[in-house]
């Protein structure tokens, strides 16, 4: 286990591979651990880091650190401590919000952004996610029981439920849509068609954003596309990480020729 101390609190992270840095940020259910297959795929060409945000996994749990602002500061402090400059960010749920807010605050530090199951405004969030009975309840709601989901189940119980609630309360005071309307960093938005926790933004609304923003929908996925359709997700991620950052991500599609290869 790797860890550093930030503001007298322990931040847990793991790292694989060598090359340009990619940071994986988990969502409201689970921890860094469910990113392992995606990290292994990325580590063939990149140095892949995955963090436990405050209140989750093996990182410190203090309610004063759970706001979106404090979680975003965690990413900045981590990059400073590790001596990392420009980075690609891949975030899911809570991690997608944190990644987007980081890109808004530090645009020169973000090469590209992949956000999965992101609510651009609070009305997109299910009331069941906003007021969970427990992290275990969310796991049973959002995930089938199979070996691929075991990493989420393993660490879900480590989460402080208030880390979920406080972060979503932070979203009450903001909408990311106006920011996305002037977003200049390449951004790939991924949603599962059957996600019960987050309502996806209308495709037409996404397409009205700048050419730097593109949405891909995984038709057979719920809240966890990286687990529900892992081979397809890894291929899309690899294509996005490899494409020229001067090009529009709208050139990336779930092309039929490789859809067939990963079934």
Please describe the topology of this protein.
Layout: E1 2-6, E2 9-16, E3 20-25, H1 36-42, E4 46-51, H2 68-82, E5 87-92, H3 94-105, E6 110-116, H4 127-130, H5 135-142, H6 150-156, H7 161-171, H8 177-180, E7 187-192, H9 203-207, E8 213-218, H10 225-228, H11 230-242, H12 256-262
Parallel strand pairs: 3-4, 3-5, 5-6, 6-7, 7-8
Antiparallel strand pairs: 1-2, 2-4
Helix pairs in contact: 1-11, 2-3
Care to describe what's here?
With 263 residues, the chain is of the alpha/beta class. It has a single domain (2-262), classed as Rossmann fold, CATH 3.40.50.1820. It has twelve helices and eight strands. It has helices at residues 36-42, 68-82, 94-105, 127-130, 135-142, 150-156, 161-171, 177-180, 203-207, 225-228, 230-242, 256-262; strands at 2-6, 9-16, 20-25, 46-51, 87-92, 110-116, 187-192, 213-218. It has an eight-stranded mixed β-sheet with strand order 1-2-4-3-5-6-7-8, sandwiched between helices. Helix 2 (68-82) crosses helix 3. The longest helix has 15 residues, at 68-82.
- Order of SSEs: EEEHEHEHEHHHHHEHEHHH
Count up the helices.
12
Number of strands: 8
Strand content range? 15-25%
CATH topology: Rossmann fold
Distance between the termini: 34 Å
Indicate the CATH architecture: 3-Layer(aba) Sandwich
Major beta sheet, specifics? 8 strands, mixed
Q: Domain count, please report it.
A: 1
Relevant CATH superfamily: Alpha/Beta hydrolase fold, catalytic domain
| CATH class descriptor name | Alpha Beta
Principal-axes shape call:
globular
User: Radius of gyration over alpha carbons?
Assistant: 17 Å
- Low-confidence spans: pLDDT under 50, at least 5 residues? 256-263
Overall pLDDT, averaged? 92
Structural class: alpha/beta
Q: Roughly what percent helix?
A: 25-40%
